[in-house]
Amino acid sequence: MALEFTDSNLKGYIAGDKPVVVDFWAEWCGPCRMIAPIIGELATEYEGKVAIGKMNVDENNEFAAQFGIRSIPTILFFKGGNLVDKHVGLAQKAVLKEKIDALL
Predict the structure, then answer these.
(1) Is 54 labeled as catalytic in the residue annotation?
(2) Is 30 an active-site residue?
(3) How many separate domains does the chain show?
């Protein structure tokens, strides 16, 4: 199950020892709803190895502003506390798996 990231907890995950994948989304975003099941599947598949979750930009805008999120869905990939990759828009599961595997 995907984690629920917030402005108050995301920094702790990014500073942790596991890679982090953040899906920036909103309730009203159709493409966000389409990618949500994929994010959930990936969170289950990589549980214990990668922290994968979602951040609602309507409820948490600090990190969205910090990382210049202007379109959603936007998925950010962190390793060692640093932003190392980014994907904007819909993506097939295989594309996201490839990006996650590069973090490991």
Answers:
(1) no
(2) no
(3) 1
